[in-house]
Amino acid sequence: MVFDPILTSVNNFCGTIDFQVSGLPTGATVAAPPVNLCANSPLTVPITITVPPGTPPGTSQLTINASGAENNAGQASNQYIYPYLQIGSGGSTFSLSVSPPQTTAPGGTAQYTVTVNGSGGLGNVTLTASGGPPGSTVLFNGSTSAVVAVGGSTTLTVATPSNEEWGTYSVPITGMLGTVPKYSSAALTIAALSPSHMLAPANG
Asked: Which of 4, 29, 113, 180 has the fewest CB atoms lying closer than 10 Å?
């Protein structure tokens, strides 16, 4: 994020301006080198704020103090601005992956590993699942939802009824980190028993 405050010399001020920024999110850094304000007034000054990966979404009000002393008279000058810094999801805070694709017969059970990908320290993600084959039961380690830290994983189990129709199904999975959602799905194929498991017809 770059802020571009504009400095204007008042009463022929001519001197070096330093910047201090407060109210930053934890771990954020500032690049704001001093500038000389004199005949180049008005002057646009880029102030770059770098937020580390894994910073939770939210809004912070910053205080930027521009201070300096005039070259000749030594007159002090302090000016403040109060911009807002908004951290969005950025699409890179976390993601979900589900593996492996499963095949089972009607009445069978399929298990998946659901992984919450991302940098540690983001917080906990609440996982829920919906849909899937009609009549099936979808649970995370025996519960309808799971709370998993970013970088961790959990087990998703899909139990199908014995009269389930053959076909390919998708089990949608949602992960919520605060108010930020991410989505994935588990792929499940319901198939007939293989020929080696079927009874041969009787002779005669």
From this structure: 4
Percentage of residues in the chain with pLDDT exceeding 70? Answer: 82
Cα dihedral 167/146/92/27 (nearest 10):
-170
Residue pair 158/188 in contact (Cβ under 8 Å)? The answer is yes
Residue 74 has pLDDT above 60, yes or no: no
CB 119 within 8 A of CB 54: yes
What pLDDT, in 10s, does the model give residues 112-132? 999 998 765 567 899 999 888
Q: Which of 130, 117, 193, 182 lies closest to 156 in space, CA to CA? A: 130
Q: Where are the extended beta strands (E) located within the chain? A: 2-3, 6-7, 15-22, 29-31, 35-37, 43-44, 47-50, 58-61, 63-70, 76-81, 84-87, 95-99, 102-104, 109-117, 124-129, 137-140, 145-149, 153-159, 167-177, 180-190
pTM: 0.53
CB 39, CB 17: distance < 8 Å:
no
Contact 175, 96 (CB under 8 A): yes
Is residue 50 within 8 Å of residue 24, measured between CB atoms?
no
Retrieve residue 4's tokens. 């571009």
**What average pLDDT does this structure show over 25-29?**
87
CA 105 – CA 194 distance, rounded (Å): 9
Is 197 in a helix, a strand, or coil?
helix
